[in-house]
Amino acid sequence: MKIYTKNQTDELLKALADRAENISPEIMNTVSEVIANVRKNGDAALREYTEKFDKVTLDSLYLSEAEKDALIAKVPSELKATIDEAAANIFAFHEKQKQNSWMTNDDGKIMGQLVRPLEKVGLYVPGGTAAYPSSVLMNAIPAKVAGVEKIVIVTPPKKEGINPAVVYAAKVAGITDIIQVGGAQAVAALAYGTESVPRVDKIVGPGNIFVAMAKKLVFGAVDIDMIAGPSEVLVIADERANPAYVAADLMSQAEHDPMAAAILITTSKKLADDVTVQIEKQKAELSRSDIIDRSLTAYGSVIIVDTLKEAATLSNKIAPEHLELSVENPFELLSLVKNAGSIFLGDYAPEPLGDYFAGPNHVLPTNGTARFSSALGVDSFIKKSSYLYYNEAALKNIGEKVVTFANAEGLSAHANSILQRLK
Length: 423
Fold this sequence. Notes:
The protein is of the alpha/beta class. The chain has helices at residues 9-18, 25-41, 43-54, 65-72, 77-95, 133-146, 164-172, 183-192, 209-218, 243-254, 269-283, 289-299, 308-318, 330-334, 351-356, 392-408, 412-422, and strands spanning 2-5, 102-106, 109-117, 120-124, 150-154, 177-179, 202-204, 223-224, 232-237, 261-266, 301-304, 322-326, 342-345, 382-390. Helices cover 47% and strands 17% of the residues.
């Protein structure tokens, strides 16, 4: 891990920003061609790409009920119970995010706002080593709470079948349609529709660079959750923090990806040294130690500061996806946090708790975008429409003011619309 002084944070910020993958023209061209082919040839294109990329010939694009039941039967009962409880926690957390429509009625003027759910949402689920049932819950449950009527999953097929835990998580989340198509072609199908795949209003869920590029290209025809960059965890720790805990939490994020960033900001040089020792000790026992090594070598960072207030200021500049406050008074430090995707307080609320089980969403803004964006939630699956009503007297009372405004902007037809009613 690289050690930075508090005056070198601009160097760290640049390194974090630059680590996002540059999309090559070849990838962009390939994805554009796939999207165009799917728009033109529909299901035939989906079958063609599935045979080409996944080496699977599909009898049906949809996973049958019998196939789902057979896969679910492979899920251990203990894992089913854990998924059930995690889903209940996620439902409970997101229920509190629901918004209501509202209306005001005052002196002949009625105004208000309608809150309505999106009608159809597509959820991309990766099919490789990153086949995460937790992501199914985190993406689908807020949509269900929002009132989305139809959610479909797209996921690349494998010869041995789709991940059984993913299929069970879909069942728990109330999703019945699982489409065995992945890659940019699945994104195109959701965005524009085919004979078998419904066109959706929004596409959510993680994927590889081809999926991310496809989501970027179809945005506008359909909404998307975000273009997720490499993820990060930032731990602010004081001198009394447990170095074993801090080391474990840094590595829990580093194991995701060689480009993931694990950052420690601390007031204690001794703690920083002890954390380094703990990383080496614990890493030897972890299955993804090679990825952890590459991540920590490239983007693992330690910053020594004088005060926790300085730590919070630096953290706000970085705007991390995950922020852990491993300090004696975490709620006091929380008041200084302005930019973070999700915040974990104290020694016993590590980032993996939020990834899987507690209830807050783990789909978070990355690569500094927590400066202006939020975690996936119920708000991600609703839309708002305003409405207004004026009676005749109310309009005539203020009509000349509207005319004045319209004329000031040179829009005489706007003014005329009001003047016709003032005659």
